[in-house]
Structure formats: C-alpha cells, structure tokens
Amino acid sequence: MTSIQLNGLTKRYRDVTAVDDLTVEIRAGAVTGFLGPNGAGKSTTMRMLLGLVRPTAGGATFDGRCYAHLPHPARTVGALLDPAVFHLGHRARSALRVVAASTGTSDARVEEVLDGVGLGDVARRRVGGFSMGMRQRLALASALLGDPETLVLDEPSNGLDPEGMRWLRGFLRRLADEGRTVLVSSHVLAELAQSVDDVLIINRGRLVTHGSMRDLLDRNQQTDLEELFLDLTASGDPS
Amino acid sequence: MNPTLTAELRKLGATRTTTATALVVGGLSGVIAVANVVLAGKERNPPLDADTFQHVVRAPTAIVGFAMLVVGVLSSAGEYRHNTIVPSLLAQPRRARLAAAKLAAVGMVALAAAMLSAAVSSATGWLLLSSREAPAADLGAVPSGLLVLGVTAALYGVLGVGLGLLLRNQAVAMTVALVWYFVVEQIAPMVLRAPHAQKWLPGGAADAFSRLGDPAGGSAAGLVAPWLGGGLLTAYALGLAALATAALVRRDQT
To answer: Which tens digit of pLDDT belongs to each residue from A60-115?
Structure first.
C-alpha cells in the first residue's frame, strides 16, 4: 500500500508559476481524480512526481521516497503521460519488450498485458499503423508491465472508444480494490465521476480542494462532479 | 546484464537503422576490399605485396566510423524525436546511468560492426589475393588494424550519442555531424589560416590513429603520432559524452 505525498511542491518557469506550494496526500486503495482547467499544472505536477521535471521547491514522494530513489521505480509506479511514447517503426510487441527489458520484467508479462488491454491479436503490427485508441491501450499496457502498486495516468481515456472507456473504468476500480494507489487526470468529468473515490482539484497551480468526492459534493451542495468542478474553479477559492 | 543496457541494445536491434547500417558496413567493406586488390598496381596504387591484406582490413575504418557516428546520433536524438525518452527516463530515473547505458550499447554495436567489416573484408581480400598469386600476406600488422577499426568505430559511436543527447533535435544533430565531418574539418583550418590545426581535430586524430602499426604508414607528415591521435579522439569522445550526460541530468523533460 503506497501513498503519494506532495510537500510544498512548486515549479516556476522564469516569471510563470506552474505549480504553487502544493501539499496533499493521495491515499492508497482509492482512485483519485486529478482535475483542473487547461494549464492548471496537472501535467507538470505528474512530471515532477515521476522525476521528469525538477521542482523549484518542495518535493513529491511515494511513501517518503522520491521516484528516482525507489528500488524498482517503474515496477513500483506505472505511468501513462502520453500515448506517443513509442517508436512508430517498432512492432507493438517489440516496443513493449524494450520497456520490459528496462524494468527487468519478463517477456511473458508482455504477452499478458498485451492480452489484458486487448492488443494481443495486433501485437505484430507496427505502432505507426495504430489508431489513437490503440496507442493509448499500448501506453496503458506499458504502465502495467511491472504490475505496479501505484498508477499515475494522465488522460488515459483519450482516444478510447466507449467499450475501451468502460473497460478502463472497471480496470481502475479493480486496481483500487486491490489496495493500489491510482491517480488519474481527465477532462471527461462525467466518465471520471463513475470511477473515482477522491477528487483533487487545482487551478493556476494552486490547490483548490482535495477529499472524498461524496463529501465534497455534499459540502458544496452539488449533485455531480462537473458542477462541482465548474463551481470551484470559476471562483478559484480554496475550500 | 544490466536491465538499462539490455533495453538500449533491444532498442538498437528493433530499428531498421541498425539492420541497414549492418548491410551498408558489410557491403562497403566487401567493395573496398575488391577495389584494393583489383586496382593494386594501377595508376598510383601500390602493387600487390605482403602488406596488401592488412591494408584491406584497415581500409573500411573511416566508413565504419562514420556509420557509427550516424547510428549514435539516431539512437540518442531519435529518443527525443519519437518521445521514447519518457519511458527510458521512467525506467531509469538516474539519468547518468541511462546515458552510460546508451554509450555502452552503441559502443558494443560499433564493435560488432567492426567485426562484421573485418570478417567481410578479410574473407573477400583473402579469396581475391589467393586467386592472384600475390606474395604471402604479412599478418603481423593485422591485429593493430583490427584494434584501430574497433576503437575508431566505438569512439565515433560515442561522439554520435553525445551529439544527439546534447542537441536532442535529430535533424539538427545529423546536420551538425555531417557538416562537421565533411566541411568544417576540411575548410576551417584554411579559413583560420592555420593549416596544421586539422591534425588536432577529431578527423585528423582519427586519421593519425588509423596508421597505428601500419608498416607502410607510420607517423605521416601533417598528422600527430598514432597513439596521440587515438588519445585525442578518445578525449573528444569522452568530453562530448560528459557534456551530454551533464545536460541530460540537468534538463527538465517536459
């Protein structure tokens, strides 16, 4: 059971503050929806969490350890930041085998995850011939290779067809029920509302609110996540 | 084997560039061997003698080095072009180790390419020389020829990886490599009115190193001594690799 801690996490690019003193703990065994308008700082936060972007101040840890100091980072945390992270000339199976080799995961696990995301039958095809949805599934497969305790997913439903979205919903739920930590960002709030337990909303790099979705809806006298999100981000007031 | 190095080798093995490079290196090594034997004694070329075989083995050194420069650039800048740098950094967040694995992988591929080149040119040269009643080959200089071939290939591969990691843009990195290799080293000494400067540049150093142990070559006029050439080329490769590693460690991957 791994929780995520953001402690005063801050990122400034010259005069622009992308993430501003973000402090929050994301609990294990729950799906946490990470919401914010475009440019709110969600992707920068996720990249700092994963060691891709260096914080200007503060830090992000998994049970007290930053990503780079985890014993097996990619087997502890599975990440999907962008579906376009594969060489288009590689076949799907080869692309995943490269990732598997780098994480010390077996080739047999590659076949398992390819089947798991519904790409088993097209594993010999080159990634360049894949649709957006298929690339998204391949990126998800890559995140799952190490059977990680924690998943950090940026817009995982992008490009997925209705069947894929339904599969993803059930999949996230199952992971959380197994005690894993799932942090997922999305702009498809109606979809997200069906799978999240907790909600973390940021705006202009600052924390707006964080807590159980049910509690936040009740506290703000709202009935759905979209209304809650629009209400909180329009005012920009932290609750 | 180290998982990061295994992954880098798999990446190189999975791309068509590596296969194409192997074909080009093998094919050109054969063609160069044929040309060395067939054209011997014609125009200003030396006649067939005991040194011809070792010349055949050494002749593709510059071609193999250039091919490895290209492979190095494509393998490192290609990571940014295809955005595969993200999963690479996620799998190995200690970036200096990732850079080291990339350099080692291209170095290993360069040694394999040098072996392929040596095998093709030796076999072709031996067959042709046997059929032409050439004097018995002096094999004494062949080991140093193989050393030059392998080390030059590996160092040019390292230069390519360094350049690619430093510049990140594949087209820019490739252009810089080509312009440097074919233009800058040739004309810069003339433009700067320092004709002897060329011997201190990577190409001049490689040229000097290529004469190591060559009984017909030795230390040629206008070049530094072979061992100094090898040392210079190594210093250029390691210097660029260190700069590129420092850049990789410091940069945000947005």
So the answer is: 999 999 999 999 999 999 999 988 899 888 899 999 999 999 998 999 999 999 99
As for how many domains chain A has, the answer is 1
pLDDT attached to residue B216: 66
Rounded to whole angstroms, the Cα distance separating A171 from A144 reads: 11
Residue B191, Cβ density class (10 Å: 0-12 exposed, 13-18 middle, ≥19 buried) = exposed
Q: Domain with A9 in it: what CATH number?
A: 3.40.50.300
How large is the average pLDDT for residues B27-55?
Answer: 89
Contact B252 A74 (CB under 8 A): no
Lateral strand order in the sheet of A150-154: A77-80, A150-154, A181-185, A30-35, A198-203, A206-212
Listed by number, the residues of chain A in 175-234 with a beta carbon closer than 8 Å to a beta carbon of chain B are none
Domain that holds residue B124: 3-250
Mutate to test the interface with A, among B76, B90, B252 (most CBs of A within 10 A): B90
CA distances from B84 to A98, A104, B5, B124 (A): 10, 17, 15, 40
Between the alpha carbon of residue B186 and those of residues A128, B194, B220, the distances in Å are 40, 11, 17
Determine contact: B131 vs chain A, CB below 8 A: no
Encoding tokens for residue A214? 């049910």
Q: Residue A239 has what pLDDT?
A: 46
CA distance A16 to chain B (A): 15
For chain B, say whether A72 makes contact (Cβ under 8 Å): no
Candidates B3, B11, B82; nearest CB to A104? B3
The tally of domains found in chain B comes to 1
Q: Which domain range does residue A133 map to?
A: 4-235
Neighbours of A69 (CB within 10 A): 13
